[in-house]
């Protein structure tokens, strides 16, 4: 069951208040008990001093009779104070000394006694008076009852407990109200977040009036909405592009088949129709394979079947396959640098082919494409970067940072849709990540450079889909008919 934050905070505040009240109350209780004990002893000392003066001057039987009357007058009827005098002479006796269990004693003749008759504890003070004239040596005991102290402590403790409980309850109610007021921005934030829907993707949380503690949360949520909105827009665009790409070959297939079925055809005509249909099927297979490859890359698949090769030799091999497209575009490629690295040759060739085809499509006739292979430095020393640079129109920075995103198109038009279905650079990024590398793009001084890197000693990850299926067949390099069609100058 979901618990209310306001109730939880109010309960915590009430518990803290109860703890503080209990701590303060205990301290006050101990201080009051100590002070009452001190006052009781001072009162006992005063009574003992008066009784001592009276007994001390009772030097004969007549004066002793007067002393007994004074002691009797001083004894209260409730028994809270008791006077007693004992001596060897039976004539000099008064009252009965308090008898019982001594619970505590102090210097100076003080003792706390629990009477044997079960009454309240008594604080006693016993002094010895030496013989004076005709009076023998006597022992004077004055006892005061703890009953008033105990009654005061009991009333004070009950009042303190009641006030602590009432104070904690008041803190609970007040803190709940204050917490609800304090959480009002969170309630408003929740209401604004609930208004976000697929039909209202532009809705964002208002951070202007939020407190600092919620501002970061709201900004993070708005950032997530921005990313989701961008991904949703790219997905919509991708769906439209894929539908367009698949609709064209399907329409061609249906049209050619319908024409072939209208009348009898010769074997050569049917062979020509099947050959044309095969080309469209190959195009459809390329699109589907690219989508499957990206889906597997999304699941964290790593490159398998790694072998240590010369990257310059692999790039040169790819350039040989792209000889016809280079000649048709009337551009030439220049290769510089070399490094050894462990890569999946099919995947590496596909990434190089995609970057080179991207450069060919955006080059003017007579331009030169530069391919550079270089080992990283510093923190990137375990990476080898392959950069493909070509002269071209400047690319805006906000476009550069999205060029390798899946489903992203810098141009919304589809004027070259038969040569490019918008996944080439996304596949390059996926292949780089499968080799524990990165991608980058920058545009400066009329030159656009796209690059990807691979780890020098990227290790195969156990449990991946076999390379024969995921890494070669889905990537579609040298052995793939789609790649072969590129080498022959026909788009795939």
**Highest-level CATH class of the largest domain:** Alpha Beta
Coarse morphology: rod-shaped
CATH architecture of the largest domain: 2-Layer Sandwich
Determine the N-to-C terminus distance: 56 Å
- What class do helices, strands and sheet pairing give? alpha+beta
Please give a structural write-up.
The protein is of the alpha+beta class and 492 residues long. It folds into two domains: 5-166, Beta-Lactamase; 279-487, Histidine kinase-like ATPase, C-terminal domain (Heat Shock Protein 90, 2-Layer Sandwich). Helices cover 53% and strands 16% of the residues. It contains 13 helices and twelve strands. It has helices at residues 5-56, 61-74, 147-182, 184-194, 212-262, 267-298, 311-321, 323-329, 345-361, 397-400, 424-434, 467-473, 481-487; strands at 81-87, 100-106, 110-115, 122-129, 138-145, 307-310, 332-336, 340-343, 368-375, 383-391, 439-444, 447-455. The strands form three sheets. It has a five-stranded antiparallel sheet with strand order 1-5-4-3-2. A five-stranded mixed sheet has the order 7-9-10-12-11. Helix 9 (345-361) packs antiparallel against helix 11 (424-434). The chain is rod-shaped. Residues 241-458 form the Histidine kinase domain. Member of a two-component regulatory system.
């Amino acid at each position: 069951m979901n618990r209310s934050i306001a109730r939880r905070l109010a309960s915590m505040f009430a518990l803290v208040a109860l703890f503080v009240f209990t701590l303060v109350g205990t301290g006050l209780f101990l201080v009051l008990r100590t002070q009452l004990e001190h006052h009781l002893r001072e009162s006992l000392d005063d009574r003992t001093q008066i009784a001592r003066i009276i007994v001390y001057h009772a030097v004969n039987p007549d004066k002793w009779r007067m002393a007994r009357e004074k002691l009797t007058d001083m004894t209260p009827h409730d028994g809270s104070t008791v006077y007693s005098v004992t001596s060897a002479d039976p004539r000099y006796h008064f009252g009965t000394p308090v008898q019982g269990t001594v619970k505590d004693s102090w210097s100076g003749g003080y003792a706390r006694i629990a009477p044997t008759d079960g009454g309240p504890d008594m604080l006693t003070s016993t002094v010895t008076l030496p013989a004076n004239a005709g009076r023998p040596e006597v022992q004077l005991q004055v006892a005061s009852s703890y009953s008033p102290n105990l009654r005061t402590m009991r009333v004070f403790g009950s009042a303190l407990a009641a006030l602590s409980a009432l104070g904690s309850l008041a803190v609970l109610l007040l803190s709940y109200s204050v917490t609800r007021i304090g959480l009002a921005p969170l309630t408003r934030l929740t209401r604004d977040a609930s208004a976000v829907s697929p039909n209202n993707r532009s809705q964002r949380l208002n951070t202007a009036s939020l407190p600092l503690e919620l501002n970061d949360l709201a900004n993070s949520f708005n950032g997530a909405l921005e990313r989701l909105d961008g991904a949703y827009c790219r997905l919509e665009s991708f769906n439209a592009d894929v539908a367009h790409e698949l609709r064209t070959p399907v329409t061609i297939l249906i049209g050619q088949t319908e024409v072939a079925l209208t009348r009898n055809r010769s074997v050569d005509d049917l062979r020509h129709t099947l050959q044309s249909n095969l080309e469209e099927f190959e195009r459809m297979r390329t699109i589907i394979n690219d989508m499957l490859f990206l889906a597997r890359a999304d699941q964290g698949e790593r490159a398998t079947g790694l072998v240590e090769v010369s990257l310059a030799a692999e790039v040169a091999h790819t350039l040989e396959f792209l000889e016809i497209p280079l000649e048709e575009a009337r551009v030439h490629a220049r290769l510089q640098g070399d490094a050894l690295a462990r890569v999946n040759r099919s995947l590496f060739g596909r990434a190089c082919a995609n970057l080179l085809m991207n450069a060919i499509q955006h080059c003017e006739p007579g331009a030169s494409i530069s391919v550079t292979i270089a080992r990283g430095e510093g923190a990137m020393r375990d990476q080898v970067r392959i950069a493909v640079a070509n002269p071209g129109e400047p690319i805006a920075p906000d476009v550069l940072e999205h060029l390798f995103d899946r489903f992203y198109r810098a141009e919304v038009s589809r004027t070259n849709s038969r040569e490019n279905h918008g996944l080439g650079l996304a596949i390059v990024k996926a292949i780089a990540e499968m080799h524990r590398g990165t991608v980058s793009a920058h545009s400066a001084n009329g030159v656009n450079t796209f690059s990807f890197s691979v780890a020098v000693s990227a290790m195969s990850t156990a449990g991946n889909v076999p390379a024969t299926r995921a890494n070669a067949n889905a990537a579609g390099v040298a052995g793939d008919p789609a790649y072969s069609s590129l080498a022959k100058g026909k788009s795939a």
